[in-house]
Q: What sequence folds into this?
């Protein structure tokens, strides 16, 4: 019975988001192009992403996943954005907004 309770507790922790995505960890892939504080413009096309709202960051990353984007950087960003879950995208957008 105790083992069953332990497993149930672990499932409850997963369901409650105890293992939520870590925006800072996700952002580590972005530092080379966007800067430690998300302050760099990239290729004079992409604005410093720390100037964007969370909603704009989420929309941009999702557009890169689909191949549609307004900055014409799909070839560079699609391989980075494609493996990101919705939770990863939300977490990294939230993290970037703390860098303002």
A:
């Amino acid at each position: 019975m105790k083992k069953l309770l332990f497993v149930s507790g672990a499932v409850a922790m997963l369901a409650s988001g105890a293992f939520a995505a870590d925006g800072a960890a996700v952002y580590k892939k972005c530092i080379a192009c966007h800067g430690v504080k998300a302050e760099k413009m990239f290729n004079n096309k992409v604005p410093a992403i720390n100037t964007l709202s969370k909603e704009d960051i989420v929309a941009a990353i999702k557009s890169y996943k689909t191949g549609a984007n307004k900055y014409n950087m799909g070839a560079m960003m699609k391989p980075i954005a494609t493996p990101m879950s919705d939770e990863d995208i939300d977490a990294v957008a939230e993290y970037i907004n703390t860098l303002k």
Notes: The two ends are 50 Å apart (CA to CA).
